[in-house]
Write a structure and sequence with these properties.
Blueprint lengths: L18 H26 L1 H23 L3 E5 L3 E7 L4 E3 L9 E2 L4 E7 L2 E3 L14 E3 L8 E7 L6 E5 L5 E4 L4
Antiparallel strand pairs: 1-2, 1-7, 2-3, 2-4, 5-6, 5-8, 8-9, 9-10
């Protein structure tokens, strides 16, 4: 018996990936990386977006107070803030106004409040159900002097909103 020697490889197909399969995998990876990048960018803009929104709402409520001859206030809780107006007897949440509605802060955003240079603790005062109004926006164009810091939870710095008694606002970025 003699051993046969095969000189030609078998006509089987070579193993590996086709160019089309590699391109599909690269496309899927690209889409996943894009979604991850978009979600990271969205998280990075939560603090500046909230600071700009709050400053714009305070300006708007100041203009509304003067134009409508109503008194407004802002009530802060740990993770929410809302606008109130004075009905002649008590402070009531602003009703039927989509812009001055109560708002919930994003999960990783907090607001620190200081009135006339003194930091205050947010939340209800002992013996009350809700936190008292903190910033008053009057129909005369005046408001309570305040400093708000909108920052990421667990971080220092943040965007600062300063309001003075004349009703003027200044928004400062962390590096200013």
């Amino acid at each position: 018996m003699s051993a046969r020697v095969r000189l030609c490889p078998s006509p089987r197909r070579a193993r590996g990936f086709t160019l089309l399969e590699v391109l599909v995998v690269l496309l899927i990876i690209g889409v996943l990386v894009s979604f991850a990048a978009l979600s990271i960018n969205r998280a990075d803009t939560a603090v500046p977006d909230e600071a700009r929104r709050l400053a714009a709402l305070i300006r708007l409520s100041g203009e509304e107070a003067v134009l409508q001859g109503q008194e407004y206030a802002i009530q802060f809780e740990a993770d929410t803030y809302s606008f109130l107006n004075f009905d002649g007897e008590a402070w009531q949440p602003v009703a039927d106004d989509e812009l001055l509605r109560a708002r919930t802060l994003p999960d990783d955003v907090v607001i620190d409040v200081a009135l006339e240079g003194e930091p205050i603790t947010l939340g209800a005062v002992e013996g009350e159900d809700k936190a008292p109004p903190r910033i008053f926006i009057l129909s005369s164009g005046e408001m309570s002097p305040f400093e708000l810091t909108v920052r990421k939870r667990g971080a220092g710095g943040g965007y600062r909103i300063d309001g003075n008694a004349r009703g003027e606002l200044k928004v400062s970025a962390p590096d200013e």
